[in-house]
């Protein structure tokens, strides 16, 4: 399914009853709500990326021009899997009816990946027992690649899926997550790429009736990682817990643009992203959009982002947004903060004989491990805490 609208910034005429200005002539009305952004699966429907577009203005677009506008290798990505009973990994064609069910690209990088992939990797989860499956992408090389993944949780199923990236990569990809009625699914996207790697990803999730999705983004490696998750709470009782953890070192750009669309009654969302930055040129970007639609009565929503700055020369952009189109909700709110160490915490630790450097590491570890401990997989949690400790050695 495609569209011929030529721009992502100015979509439709007469949106919300608005019309062009009498002195105008440009003929289009700016986007009035988050759900009305232009979307297409065809890269040709999007203009070339310049960095002035609203979705790219905080991104280092020159570093990944080959992923947003060049030809991509859409063949199967090399994978290593550890999949228990109840989880199967296979490959499906572009014509599979599940592809496109969770969402469609809203930017040129996502559309380029969608236009270029040959087959999609399908991860199927079935059975009511808890299970953990790990899919590792490694050995992708330095050539630009495009990929597509579908994760499908059958009704009333339970499972935790880890998508892990290691080694060299220049990857643009889309991940669709389908959570069936009554299912409980956790998806962990773990970026442990090499220092020069670039990864652009869009995740689209559709959560069914009385189903729950826990979506966790952990970005530690890579020169540029831009991972944007969008969740559609499409049926009554749908629930999303969107969590994120990132640690940006010198010259590293880690970005997340999170979108939650409450589109049915009695849905719930919690968004909590935390990051730390150290070193000259370390950069993080977090944009959180929550839309409570007119049908989403009884919504319970809250989003927050916290950034801890460890050294000079860093920059953290944090932009929470909240749109409410019905007055009948349980609650909604958002928060954002960026700062340095809490002096009272450091004083407390130092007063008990802990050296300042060690006290600082303890504060940072406590700040970040809140997210790790919510994964629900002890072995993975322990390994990630070790990885954070290694990052902190340079703080």
UniProtKB/TrEMBL annotation:
Domain SUF system FeS cluster assembly SufBD core per the UniProt entry, residue ranges: 147-367
Family the UniProt entry places it in: Belongs to the iron-sulfur cluster assembly SufBD family.
Transmembrane segments annotated in the record for this chain: none
PANTHER family in the record: PROTEIN ABCI7, CHLOROPLASTIC
Compositional bias of kind Low complexity: 1-12
Protein name as it appears in the record: Fe-S cluster assembly protein SufD
Top-level taxonomy: Bacteria, Bacillati, Actinomycetota, Actinomycetes, Micrococcales
A Pfam short name: SUFBD_core
Region (Disordered): 1-27
GO biological process: iron-sulfur cluster assembly
């Amino acid at each position: 399914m495609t569209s011929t609208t030529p721009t992502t910034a100015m979509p439709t005429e007469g949106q919300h009853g608005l019309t062009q200005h009498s002195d105008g002539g440009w003929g289009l009305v700016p986007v009035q709500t988050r759900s009305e952004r232009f979307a297409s699966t065809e890269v040709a429907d999007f203009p070339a990326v310049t960095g002035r577009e609203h979705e790219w203005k905080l991104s280092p677009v020159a570093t990944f021009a080959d992923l947003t506008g060049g030809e991509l290798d859409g063949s199967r990505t090399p994978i290593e899997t550890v999949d228990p009973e109840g989880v199967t990994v296979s490959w499906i064609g572009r014509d599979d009816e599940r592809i496109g069910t969770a969402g469609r690209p809203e930017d040129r990088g996502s559309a380029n990946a969608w236009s270029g992939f040959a087959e999609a990797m399908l991860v199927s989860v079935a059975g009511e027992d808890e299970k953990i499956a790990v899919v590792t992408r490694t050995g992708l090389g330095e050539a630009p690649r495009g990929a597509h993944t579908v994760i499908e949780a059958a009704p009333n199923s339970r499972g935790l899926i880890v998508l892990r990236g290691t080694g060299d990569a220049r990857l643009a990809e889309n991940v669709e997550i389908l959570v069936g009625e009554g299912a409980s699914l956790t998806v962990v996207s773990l970026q442990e790429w090499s220092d020069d790697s670039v990864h652009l990803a869009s995740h689209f999730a559709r959560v069914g009736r009385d189903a729950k999705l826990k979506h966790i983004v952990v970005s530690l490696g890579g020169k540029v990682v831009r991972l944007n998750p969008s969740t559609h709470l499409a049926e009554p009782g749908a629930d999303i817990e969107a969590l994120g953890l990132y640690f940006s070192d010198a010259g590293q750009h880690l970005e997340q643009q999170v979108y939650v669309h409450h589109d049915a009654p009695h849905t719930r969302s919690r968004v909590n992203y935390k990051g730390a930055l150290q070193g000259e040129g370390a950069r993080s970007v977090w944009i959180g959009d929550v839309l409570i639609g007119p049908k989403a009565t009884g919504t319970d929503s809250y989003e927050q982002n916290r950034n801890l700055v460890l050294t000079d020369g860093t920059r953290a952009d944090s932009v929470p947004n909240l749109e409410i189109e019905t007055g009948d909700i349980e609650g909604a709110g958002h928060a954002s903060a960026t700062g340095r160490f809490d002096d009272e915490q450091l004083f407390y630790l130092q007063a008990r004989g802990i050296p300042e450097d060690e006290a600082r590491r303890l504060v940072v570890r406590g700040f970040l491990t809140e997210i790790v401990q919510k994964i629900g997989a002890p072995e993975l949690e322990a390994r990630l805490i070790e990885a954070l400790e290694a990052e902190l050695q340079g703080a």
